[in-house]
Amino acid sequence: MASGRSKNDKKWTVNMKVLGIDIGTTSVCAVILHGATGEVLETVSINNDAAIAGGKSWEALQDAEKIWQRAEQLIDKLVGRHPDIGAIGLTGQMHGIVYIDANGQSVSPLFTWQDGRGDKLVPSVKLKEIISVQTELLQDDLNRQSGQLTYAALLSLLSGYKLATGFGAVTHFYNIHNNLVPENAVKICTIHDYIGMRLTKRKSPLMHISDAASLGLFQHGIFDGEALRKCQIDPDIFPEVASDFAVIGRKDDIPVIVAIGDNQASFIGSVRDMSSSIVINIGTSGQISMLADDLVDDFSAMELRPLLALHDAGQELVISVGAALCGGKAYALLEKLFRSVIDMSGTTHQQGFDQDTSLFPVMNKLAEEALEKYTDDSDKLVVSTRFRGTRQDPHIRGSISGIGMHNFDAQHMIIGVLEGMVDELYEFYSPDTSHKHLVGSGNALRRNPVLQKIAAKRFGLPLLIPMHTEEAAYGAALAALTGAGFCDSLEQAQSLIRYQGG
Predict the structure, then answer these.
(1) Residue 363 domain-assigned?
(2) Is residue 17 classed as helix, strand or coil in its secondary structure?
(3) Which domain holds residue 339?
(4) Residue 136 located in a structural domain
(5) Do residues 306 and 316 make contact, with C-beta atoms less than 8 angstroms apart?
(6) Which residues fall within 8 angstroms of residue 387, CB to CB, at 6 or more apart?
(7) Residues sharing a CB contact under 8 Å with residue 418, sequence separation 6 or more, in sequence order
(8) The domain spanning residue 341 has which CATH number?
(9) Within its chain, how far is the Cα of 117 from the centroid?
(10) How many Å apart are CA 108 and CA 2, to the nearest integer?
């Protein structure tokens, strides 16, 4: 640990603790980390009950002030119980935006990453109006689209960036053209940026590059002013950007570090050695992440996301991310199928099952038996778990192939779905001899030993699972250790990570 650094007024002590906060879509989680050992001393999770019923089925809104109140109460309790906290780190749900006024107060709900307004079709009159100020080339592109474009597709066409609904820039673009931007809004930011502002009484947000990239129209460490103006968007509404783990202010003399995106925070909080590790996260969705060589936009299915600028080395760390939209939901879907069969049989209550009984323990046991019993790959079911489509093709669906007379049963189906979940992530990966470890996270993976074995076998690497369970909050705490000056580098902070089994 770095001792006596002057980035903040608090001096390093052997008992120094760090607080990491994750503002998630459904929960707000906090971890208290021992700064010298990396041990998690306390974990607290509360429900994020801030959802707002919008007037449209495709809206996904949350009450920003309610989230702030919940977060403030949680932070105050933990700071009261742990007076030796030396830094606070923040992370949370990416892509979404809150509108902020000149006093640093929210003037809108949080438009979350799940909001669907970007997939709404632009009315033909408005479309012609927007296109009319652009080049004939855009008109040709529009003609190829049969004269119909969604707001996300239109902004992608106008800007040249690959964008999707839920991205902050897309949400703002829709709001501009539907008169939904609050009159007194001067900035947009993420919800965790807003929590940081309120904690430190800032009037304007400072956004980390990990979150800035998630809004869209961002490249080479800055929002693309030229592209924004081309799309008739005022660049000034986008916040100032930080490329390192900057201190944004203080709460009760405790330095608060700039909030970072939850995907990057989970990566930071999972890997002890970034250059030699791959991370797979299988929860309600699925992701594969690894350190990338350069921030170059290509047309692969992998998304490149900035992590951290290394100013001394003159380079930027970037992670490459592949997303499976279904992930652990595929296994839950199969459980739902089995439950419906039991319900149809009429023997539910006779066998001790009711609506609250989980079939996952039975399924996991069958999977364990099947893994030992069925070793011949030639007779397995091949299951594609793209039940929610993909980022590139939302209309594609899952499938089952290889059905024969002897493999159309529950055990083969269970193994097929588990293998399909892993295969969907593996398809993003190009084997690299520099990768020595596969790091696993997410409840669907943690709770299923068979899924762990399948993943290790498919990637041909030993699987490591962190001792701590809240990887994003833990990663935010490690970023705080680094940003507050208690560690000389992110790598030094990550050396605190411990894995199950040693």
Answers:
(1) yes
(2) strand
(3) 329-464
(4) no
(5) yes
(6) 326, 329, 330, 333, 397, 398
(7) 331, 367, 448, 450, 451, 454
(8) 1.20.58.2240
(9) 20
(10) 41
pLDDT tens sequence for the chain (502 residues): 333 333 444 555 567 899 999 999 989 999 999 999 999 999 999 999 999 988 899 999 999 999 999 999 999 999 999 999 999 999 999 999 999 999 999 999 999 998 999 999 999 888 877 776 555 556 556 655 556 899 999 999 999 999 999 999 999 999 999 999 999 999 999 999 999 999 999 999 999 999 999 999 999 899 999 999 999 999 999 999 999 999 999 999 999 999 999 999 999 999 999 989 999 999 878 899 999 865 444 446 788 889 887 655 567 888 999 988 888 899 999 999 998 888 887 765 555 666 667 899 999 999 999 888 887 777 899 999 999 888 777 788 999 999 999 899 999 999 999 999 999 999 999 887 789 999 999 889 999 999 999 999 999 999 999 999 999 999 999 999 999 999 999 999 999 999 998 6
- Give the integer Cα–Cα distance in Å for 188 and 390: 28
The answer to whether the predicted template modeling score (pTM) of the entire model surpasses 0.85 is yes
| Terminal Cα-to-Cα distance of the chain (whole angstroms) | 22
Q: If we measure between CA atoms, which residue out of 64, 88, 66, 65 comes closest to residue 76? A: 88
Asked whether residue 390 is domain-assigned, the answer is yes
Query: How many distinct structural domains can be found in the chain?
Result: 1
SS3 494: helix
The verdict on residue 456 lying in a domain is: yes
Q: Which residues are 437's β-sheet partners?
A: 277
Question: Apex CA 310: angle with CA 304 and CA 315, to 5°?
Answer: 60
Instruction: Tell me the backbone φ, ψ of residue 426, rounded to 5 degrees.
Output: -65, -30
Q: How far apart are CA 220 and CA 425, in angstroms?
A: 28
